Known about the structure:
Number of helices of chain B: 9
Order of helices and strands of chain A: HHHHHEEEEH
Mean pLDDT of chain A: 72
Helix content of chain A: 40-55%
Oligomer: heterodimer
Distance between the termini of chain B: 40 Å
Structural class of chain B: mainly alpha
Shape of chain A: rod-shaped
Low-confidence stretches of chain B: 165-172
Number of strands of chain A: 4
Helix content of chain B: 55-70%
Distance between the termini of chain A: 88 Å
Mean pLDDT of chain B: 82
Order of helices and strands of chain B: HHHHHHHHH
Strand content of chain B: under 5%
Amino acid sequence: MTNPLCEQLDLYLLDELADDERETFERHFTGCEACRTTAQRQTHLDGLLKAAAESVACPPGLARRVRTEVARVQKPSRKRAAVLAIVAASIVVGLAGRLLIEPSRRPNPQPEVQVATNGAVRPAERPVAAPSPRARVEFPRSVMAVPVESGDPDVTLIQVYFVVETSENLRRNPSPTQP
Amino acid sequence: MPAWDHLEPHLPHVFRFAMRLTGDVHQAEDLTQETFLRAWKQRTSLHDLQKARVWLFRITANLMKDRMRRSSRRSEPASLSNEILESITQLPETLVIQNEEIQQALQAVESLPPRQREVLHLAAVEDLAPAEIAEVLDISRNAVNVHLCEARKAMRQLLPRPARSVPSTEPI
């Protein structure tokens, strides 16, 4: 390859020549035996590299391992999930308790002050408080409920812990209700 | 945004590229896994699914760059030839080629500078265009062309010209 145009062969094969350069090169290429042989050889070399690389198989199980790892980072951790579950359960139970208690606690509408027949103003009698309501909530054996101070006397928060019984525990303390 | 099914088909390609960068099966596996984890976390940044492979290769190259920066030395990747040759089982029937020829080609590749090897791999094996290779390696398109032309010329000089006529690599 003595012609300077032969130097453009690789750029031509890579389709990296500008339009005018390509036209000039193609005119050269048709008459240059060396460029045609080199182009054929380069195609063969590329084929060799491709065949060699494609014969390298992916290690067995790599795809599965990657999939598992991606799925693992996608989920929140067990500890975080447990904390979230407790918080969510606390909120639900707290709200439910409040809803159950509120209607029975509501006093009868009465004026705040009463005007006596003699015209004297005296404070309204304190309304008789309704009997303290009790909400009975039953939990299944699989959870442990712990009451927590909420700061509001009308509301009791209950933290719910999910009890996980290991097979060892089940062997030691078989549940009578379990089949 | 890509779903997992859009990314997973590229896994063997990412692994091969990782092999090219690290020269070691175990490191390549780690790098592949790391690539897909990062890709999954950043999947919202892939807007064109047609560019998924280039995008994944770029992540792989960046992670490799980080690794080398952390190890604060540009270690030469181990020779790839033996690993590849050991794993060669059966060559495609459409290619009339000899193992010896492949070995010579791989030895020639190993004698190239690392950047030329990477560029050559992406062009010859992955069929990426120079613009895509530039995107993967974060270098200019002109730099890719220079590296690629140098690598191809070196390969042609290093490999002995076959005595008989060169068989075509295209399926007949």
